[in-house]
Structures are given as C-alpha cells and as structure tokens.
C-alpha cells in the first residue's frame, strides 16, 4: 500500500517549500520528503549563516570609515558573539519553526531518503529504517540541491578538508585557513574568516570572481590583501601533505613552486547536482547529472522531450545556482503543476506566468564580500559572445554625493551594458559598500527592458548611492528629440 498526494516534492529546502506551497495554493495536496532539516542548505549551511558571519565585519569596516563613529570603536570583533549570533540565525540547526510553517501551509512531511521506484512512485527510507511508499496523482518535483565538488588532488582527501558546510557552521576559528577556489564561496569565506582573525590564504587557478566583470574580482582581491589575507591567483594546488604533529597541520604545494601551511583547508571549487542516489535509472534518467528542464521546469528526457509528471527546481537543474533564482523557479513550477493538473491555461511564452525566462537574461546576484559585488544580467564579455552590439558605461560611485555621506574615502564602480540596437540595459554591475541594496532597481530595468529614454525619468533621490544611475545615464548621453 502507498500513500498518494497530488504533488510530492523531494527536498525540503526553500525551493521545495515554495513548490509545495504554490501547488497547495493552486488547490492540490502536497507532501515534502526531506532527509535532513526542513529549511535546507540555505537556512542552515549556506546563505543565512554565511551572511551572519560576514555582517559583523562589514559593519565594523564601515564604522571605521566614518569619523565620530570610528573613535567609538576601540576593539576587535568579539568572535564568540559573532558565532553565537550565527547560531541564532540558523535556529541552532533545529527546524521546529519550519515545521510550524508546514502545518500552517497545509503541507505534509515525510522524513527520510527518497528513491524512485517507477513513474510517479517513491520509496522513502527513514533514519530508523522505516519505509514509506508514496505515489503522486499528478507530479513529483525534485529540489534536492547540490553538493560541494572535491578535486582529486593527491593528499587532499587525507587532509579532511572543510566544505562550505563546515566553514559556515564552525564553532571555533582556526589560526590559519587555506581556501581553494575563486568563486563566491571562496571570496565570501575569505572575507569572513579574515575579519574573524584567521590568517587566510586564498588559492585560485584563475581570477577571483571570474564570472563577474573583471574589476569586481580585482577590487575584492585588493580589499582582502589590505585586510591581511594572502591572495594567490593563477596557481593550483598540486599536492597536500598532512602532519598532525606539525604546527599548521597541512602543507599545500602549489604549481608555482611555493607552499602554504594551514591549520584547516576549505575546498570551494564548485558544486555538483545531488542526483546520484535518487534511483533516477528507474525512470530512464541518468544519475549524477543536472536535471535539464524546459522553462516551465518540466524535466526533459534523454531525447529532450518533457516528462509530463516530473519537475525540478533549484540547484539540481543547473540553471542558476542561487536561492532566490531557485525560489523563482519553484513558484513557476508549483503554479504550472497546479494549472496542468486542473486543466487551466498554461502560459509558457517568454515572460509568461509559467516560464522561467529570467534564468536566461536577468539573474541577479550579490556577493557579500568587502566591497560587495552586485550584478544582474550579462557582463560585457557575455553580451559580446551573444552577438549583441553593446556600449559599456562605467562610473565611480565614490563621486556621487550619497557616497560622501556614506563614509570617507568611499570606493566603488558601477557599470551598465547597453544593447545599442534596442537601447535597453542587458547588464549592470555595482562594486562598493552596501551596493546590494542598489541591485533591485537594476534588476527591474534589465527584466522590464526599460528604454534608456524612459530611465531618464526615473529620478534618483538625493543624496543617496542611487544617484549613480543619473551619472551613468549622463555618461551615456542624454537622448535628443
């Protein structure tokens, strides 16, 4: 015997919760299957704890640039209090609050690990070995997320390196930390741990934040170096040697002939989809790969055709590995499931209510380093690769009045990438203190394809950092009649 629901969601993180919630709001019954904590990676090991670790250092850095306030700061960060606040933000890794929300949203929960046994069918094994069989009347949605990717560097596994989970949940700060990687996790954790007193060495094969505009990674690397971190770019770790009795514990031998000694190693070299243990072979899909989807989030079979009853959202799709983008996908998936199940119209046209079109051209992202990096849409290089005839406009944020008020010596750069044929923005990047709060205006401009001529009438308030919009437009040139 099996229990049936209209919709079964595998994965109880923020993305899975949103799929189930939208399906229930659409008139269906739903259950979430979760093997760990309801609330998922973002709540306990990623977005929330990482930003909690970063916030205290960011505030202190800002205060020290404002005369009057700077004189009131006489000490360093209280590391114990920072970690305690982080623990509070994660609810001490308990999901009681999330369970209350599930009840209020009329979503059932089955704890355990789910495996496909056939179309619309799952076997869920709980930690105590109890097995529950579930069947879906209409759809199953996979929202299992992703896992850290560990390179096969000789000696690395024996060193028992941290992953992002360890870095965001640590209860003590190591004296020294070697971070392998140059992406968002590496940059953010380098910023956090440097502020918390660790001697940080960041080692990356390529550039820092290489998927952003070049000046973004350059400014973050400069800030990390100024804060006391050692940033090594364009080098690789060739081997790791571990001596538990030696000071530092681990020696990383690099491709340039140098060596780094560290108490702990954090590997932040990318993510892989969490699909290898779902029994996907039972429904004719490869395991260990991202689940490719159409824009309504239906999973595509090996031939590229949508599987009518199977959906996926979040990291597991490989579309945009960001919580907010995954939640966007989840809302679309839940709405599409409900609409199809109830025979209602489904709009999958570009920018339609059941189409995740923004994944292709308007993805926003904030990297909470010092300085922050906020971007949406395409970089200049990406736009060029797509054959868009562009004009790139840069402006120093420190020149606007709002930056003068914000802090002394404010440094930052804004860039907009304009599609010259359509005269709309296709990409915007801000680098500077607190620029994350500027990003949604840019996201609206890119998503809505607001013409340059109309943007001139969106008057920024004075004196705020938002005045940079006016300066960018002035640098571009005022339209003529």
TrEMBL record:
SUPFAM superfamilies referenced in this protein's UniProt entry, alphabetically: FAD/NAD(P)-binding domain, FAD/NAD-linked reductases, dimerisation (C-terminal) domain
Keywords of the record: FAD, Flavoprotein, NAD
Cofactors that this protein relies on: FAD
Organism: Gryllotalpicola daejeonensis
Every Pyridine nucleotide-disulphide oxidoreductase dimerisation domain range: 363-469
Signal peptide: none
Residue ranges of every copy of the FAD/NAD(P)-binding domain listed in the record: 5-326
Domain of life the protein comes from: Bacteria
Keyword NAD in record: yes
Protein family (similarity comment): Belongs to the class-I pyridine nucleotide-disulfide oxidoreductase family.
Protein name: NAD(P)/FAD-dependent oxidoreductase
């Amino acid at each position: 015997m099996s229990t049936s629901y209209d919709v079964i969601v595998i994965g109880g993180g923020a993305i899975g919760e949103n799929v189930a919630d939208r399906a229930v709001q659409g008139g269906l019954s739903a259950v979430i299957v979760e093997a760990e904590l309801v609330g998922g990676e973002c709540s306990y090991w990623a977005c929330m704890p990482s930003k909690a670790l970063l916030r205290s250092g960011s505030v202190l850095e800002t205060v020290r640039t404002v005369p009057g306030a700077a004189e009131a700061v006489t000490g360093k960060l209280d590391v114990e209090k920072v970690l305690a606040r982080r623990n509070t933000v994660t609810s001490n890794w308990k999901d009681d609050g999330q369970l209350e929300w599930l009840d209020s949203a009329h979503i059932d929960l089955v704890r355990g690990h789910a495996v496909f046994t056939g179309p619309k069918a799952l076997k869920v094994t709980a930690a105590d070995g109890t097995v529950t069989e579930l069947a879906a009347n209409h759809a199953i949605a996979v929202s299992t997320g992703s896992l850290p990717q560990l390179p096969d560097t000789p000696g690395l596994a024996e060193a028992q390196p941290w992953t992002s989970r360890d870095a965001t949940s640590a209860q003590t700060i190591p004296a020294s930390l070697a971070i392998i990687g140059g992406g968002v996790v590496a940059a953010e954790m380098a910023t956090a741990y440097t502020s918390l007193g660790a001697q940080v060495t960041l080692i990356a094969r390529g550039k820092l934040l290489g998927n952003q505009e070049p000046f973004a990674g350059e400014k973050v690397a400069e800030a990390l170096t100024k804060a006391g971190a050692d940033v090594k770019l364009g080098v690789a770790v060739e081997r790791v040697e571990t001596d538990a009795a030696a000071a530092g514990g681990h020696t990383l031998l690099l491709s340039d002939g140098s060596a780094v000694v560290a108490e702990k190693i954090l590997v932040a070299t990318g993510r892989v989809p969490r699909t290898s243990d779902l029994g996907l072979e039972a429904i004719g899909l490869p395991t260990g790969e991202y689940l490719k989807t159409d824009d309504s989030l239906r999973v595509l079979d090996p031939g590229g055709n949508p599987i009518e009853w199977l959906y996926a959202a979040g990291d597991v799709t490989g579309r945009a590995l960001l919580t907010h983008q995954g939640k966007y996908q989840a809302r679309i998936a839940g709405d599409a499931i409900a609409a199809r199940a109830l025979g209602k119209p489904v709009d999958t046209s570009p920018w339609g209510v059941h189409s995740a079109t923004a994944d292709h051209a308007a993805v926003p992202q904030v990297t909470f380093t010092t300085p922050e990096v906020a971007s949406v849409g395409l970089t200049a290089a990406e736009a060029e690769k797509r054959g868009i005839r562009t004009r790139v406009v840069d402006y120093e944020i420190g020149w606007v009045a709002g930056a003068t008020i914000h802090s002394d010596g404010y440094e930052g750069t804004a860039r907009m990438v304009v599609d010259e044929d359509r005269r709309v923005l296709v990409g915007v990047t801000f680098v500077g203190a607190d620029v994350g709060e500027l990003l949604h205006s840019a996201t609206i401009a890119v998503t809505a394809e607001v013409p340059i001529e109309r943007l001139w009438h969106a008057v920024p308030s004075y004196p705020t950092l938002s005045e940079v919009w006016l300066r960018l437009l002035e640098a571009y040139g005022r339209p003529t009649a």
